[in-house]
Amino acid sequence: MRAAAALTATVGGGLGTPGVARTLVKHYNAGNAFERDASHTEPFWGAHQGGIITPPQSHTYLAALDLATEKRDEVMRLLRAWTTAAARMTRGEPAAPIERDAATVLPDSGEAHGLPPARLTLTFGFGAGLFLRDGKDRYGLAAQRPAALVDLPPLMATN
Question: Which one, of 63, 68, 49, 62, lies nearest residue 130 by Cα?
């Protein structure tokens, strides 16, 4: 079941080539060593994005956000901060160094402090709105928009 879900996620992510699928199944069928070892880390930096051809994690969380700023430098600053935090968290560290000053409010609640990295991977994806919004080149990136990245049609609820 997990292998099928992982393959579906891989295909859904646009990486459904037979070679990637075979690699994923090979890793999954190798005995789930990653599932048993919560201290294992998935590399954040490397030739491939962590979490794509690695065995599936036991939990997945998604968040969809809209950029509120119209300033390119603020987007760049946000992405740099997220990259730094993601790299730290995949190593089992807090998103930012935790200062233990009782007189200040911590930006990190600390509930995961001391827990192993547990093969954490993070993926940041962007929709067409990063490139164009209301016909406007929001951040000077419209010319770099991949051809396959198209606007989704409006979703309609069915009863």
Answer: 68
Q: List Cβ neighbours of 99 (8 Å cut-off, separation of 6 or more).
A: 106
Give pTM, 2 decimals: 0.65
Dihedral sign, Cα of residue 33, residue 35, residue 41, residue 47: positive
Beta bridge partners of 137: 132
Q: What range defines the domain where residue 87 resides?
A: 72-144
9 domain-assigned: yes
Give the model confidence (pLDDT) of 93-111 as tens digits.
888 877 666 666 666 676 7
Q: What are phi and psi of 2, to 5 degrees?
A: -65, -40
Would 158 be classed as within a structural domain? Answer: no
**Which neighbouring-strand residues pair with 141?**
none
